[in-house]
Amino acid sequence: MTEPLRRPKRKNPVLATRLSVLPPWQRSRVALGLTAAAAEGRFALQRCADCGTVQYPPRENCHRCLGDQLPWCEVDGGGELISQTTLLHSHDLFFRERVPWRLGMVKLDCGPVVVVHLHADVGAPATRLRVGARLDRAGMGVLVGFPEQDVPNMADDRQLREMTCDPRFRKVLVTDGKTAVGQALVRALVAAGADRIWVGHSEPWKMLPGFAELAAIPQVTLVPLDVTNALSVREMGGEIGARVDILINNAEYHRAHGIASRHGTEVARAEMDVNYFGLLRLAQEFGPVMRARVADGQSSATAWVNLLSIFALSNFPAHGTFSASKAAAFSLAQCLRAEMRPAGLRVMNVFPGPLDDEWNQLLPPPKLAPEALAKAVVAALRDGVEDVYPGDVAQEWITRYRENPKVLERELAAG
Amino acid sequence: MHGPARPEATQHVTTRMRYEGVAVAVPVTQPYVRYSVRSAHWFIAEVLSKLLKTTGLRKEQIDGLCVSGFLLAPDTAVGLTQNLGVSPRWLDHIPMGGACGVVALRRAARAVQAGDAEIVACIAGDTNHVDSFRQTLGSFSQFARDAVYPYGSGGPNASFAFLTDYYMRTTGARREDFGKLCVAQRTNALPNPVALFRKPLSLQDYLDARPIAEPLHLFDCVMPCAGGEGFLVMSEDRARSMGLRYAQLLGSIERHNAFPEDPIQMRGGWAMDKDDLYDQAGVGPGDMDFVEVYDDYPVITAMQLEDLGFCAKSAAPQFIRENTFTCDGSLPLNTSGGQLSVGQAGAAGGYLGLVEALRQLTDQPLGAPVPSARLGLVSGFGMINYDRGLCSGAVVLARSAA
After folding, report:
1. Using CB atoms, which residue from B145, B153, B166 is nearest to A28?
2. Which of A88, A113, A114 sits opposite B212 (nearest CB)?
3. I need a surface site. Which of A224, A373, B3, B267 has the fewest CB within 10 A?
4. B92 by DSSP, 3-state: which?
5. ipTM of the complex, rounded to two decimals
């Protein structure tokens, strides 16, 4: 049985902070299909469109019929552990620092034999287990063998924690505590066992509902933070940057309308200032120091979460300039991910559909409740996924977008 | 007698041609070192040089060349011809790891029989720099890079740990059984001057060694090193005219990706082809005076003993308990110490047993001789591409009548 995680002791300031190393990240192009699915928390393998054979390791032709149409399909992870080993020696720095490391060989019910990182609570062979996909510290898709039934403290498995970003006993910065989403995030993080939560707030003269209650939560520390103000971001980065394990940027400026219905550029400029430049300012002040702390013990720096919008993928003309600012933020977030990945810091992009808030008042339901969004963010951190499309609207949009982005563009233009 | 005697020859639709008139001669070894700053090219050149010096042949007289070496990359046998200044009319490059010696001999023998080449030099050599083994592992194969190496980066230790775990669980093999093989091979290595491990090993030492990848411990694992091996293939007439001692090739097999539906490797291609081998050779496993099997880990030795008919499937543990494997034992096995005691010089590991068999059959062993050795079996196994070794092969060699 996995030992429950304990609150780590204070860091010994005399000891050097361990530098981050990654597990091997090289993959062939075809193998990246596993990563693409794992980035959304799905376990998918190649299934031959001609003969139905599921195969692994990935390749470009079906090993049974040589067909070359091999879509990545979600598969059932049930299987039997046929063999296991525990490494006490590794040729790679990442694993060398982390042995003993348990591995398994699994015969999946759907066909192939797979090598997996093996959870400590899986019994000895031959036993049933279920295989899932996760992103490892290098951000690459890998397979993990889990116990067939959930067991207590499952997420606390030492090997699994190298792949996830569980907020438990970690220190989190939520950049805007004044919105309903920010407050829901803080409450969800407290419930998830976060050790400390810094909550940013700008414009102190605005007393919005719920904010006073937030300040009363023992784990919460309110900090002045205005993402449109370079000095404010720099000061906060200097003050708490070296302690933040998870940064959640939920600061957002959202107004309706597109181009013709609102004259001038002031609103669009404000949207860009918060949604795009705000992210850029935060990334420049917090990114480098977080990147340096990825291997800093049990509660290391682990994730950066961007609250984007499903409108980042394809413009929603009724909220046209907002969509554009989120598209810019999305593009920048991809750059941030590329710069953080070599250190092993996960950049997670969240693409919600319309939230149930005042700025989406005129949109018909379903609309995403702030609590549901917060829950999705915490779940994504626990699973260590990279891209999150929470709620029915986002799920429908992403499905349509993947089917045909041009068709979606026309549908959105029709209103 | 070890296992059944020669089975009655079965009539194949197409009978394979025998290797009549072929001589396998001039076993040479470029001594092994743990690390070298030389290249694989250098080790192969040294072996070629030794082949020439031993025989008095000129480079130009060697008209066939067959090479293997992991660390030749980006070069192949093609680049080596210019590198070595040779102009062969027959050239082969065999990237089959532990099966490369057996396969090289098969190919070369046919080339000589057909007259495509008169004298073929078969050479495997590899170097080992301080970090080259790790670098080879990460790019060993597409499947290894995508689906094995990112899982703990244990290299072959991890792959063979899986096979050993499964084998022990299903056959009842104990660590003591594998230990007996390792200890016997170490005994065989003690008088071999090129063996890297020449310190006596006790069963207790074996059992007490530190774990590497459960259930494998230190002495279950080969040591990567640098070195080279080679021999010549030519007609018997030619060998006799040169006054060379040689061995005859009685039979051979090779197989790749055997039994792909097995969920985990419990047998290799030998199990498919052993009847073919013994039919062609006209002898059976019980006739062998010694055996040289591929031994990067002892579990694969056990599988070869089973699949080549020395005992029934899954009966190797019992067979090991009932036999002795030193040069004076009931079944002399890996008589120069095998890779586990000599070292694994990359692709040359696929030649080690073959070159040692030639030495035994031509009365020039580096270490202890196998008393009155007339027949020997050499088996190769190579290339853990993903979850199992894909290449397997074996040859039966006999002392020449002359």
Report:
1. B145
2. A88
3. A224
4. strand
5. 0.93
Q: What is the pLDDT of residue B240?
A: 97
Q: Is B131 on the interface with A (CB under 8 A)?
A: no
Q: Which two tokens stand for residue B237?
A: 């007439």
Tokens of A19: 């530098």
Structure tokens at A124: 């000895």
- Strand, coil or helix: A324: helix
Q: Single out the residue of A273, A268, A345, A339 nearest to residue A305, CA to CA.
A: A345
A 10 A CB-CB count for A292 gives 17
Cβ(A372)–Cβ(A361) below 8 Å: no
Residue A93 token pair: 């720095």
Q: What is the DSSP string of A69-86?
A: ---EEE---EEEEEEEEE
Query: How many residues are there in chain A?
Result: 415
- Those residues with Cβ within 8 angstroms of residue B11's Cβ, 6 or more apart along the chain or in another chain: none
Contact B228, B47 (CB under 8 A): yes
Interval B196-205: pLDDT, tens:
999 999 999 9
Rounded to two decimals, what is the model's pTM?
Answer: 0.94
Tokens linked to B233: 């293939």
Helix (H) or strand (E) holding A189: helix A180-191
Residue B399, strand partner residues: B247
Query: Do residues A321 and A253 make contact, with C-beta atoms less than 8 angstroms apart?
Result: no
Contacts of B216 in chain A (CB under 8 A): 85
Distance in angstroms (rounded) separating the CA atoms of residues A293 and A287: 10
- Asked if A224 and A232 touch (Cβ cutoff 8 Å), the reply is yes
Cα–Cα distance, A85 to B156 (Å, whole number): 12
pLDDT in tens, A160-175: 999 999 999 999 999 9
The type of residue at A409 is E
Please state, in angstroms and rounded to a whole number, the distance separating the CA atoms of residues B98 and B339. Answer: 10
User: Which single residue is written with the structure tokens 């420049």?
Assistant: A284
Does the CB of A26 have a partner CB in chain B at under 8 Å?
Answer: yes
The C-alpha atoms of residue B156 and residue B212 are separated, in whole angstroms, by: 11
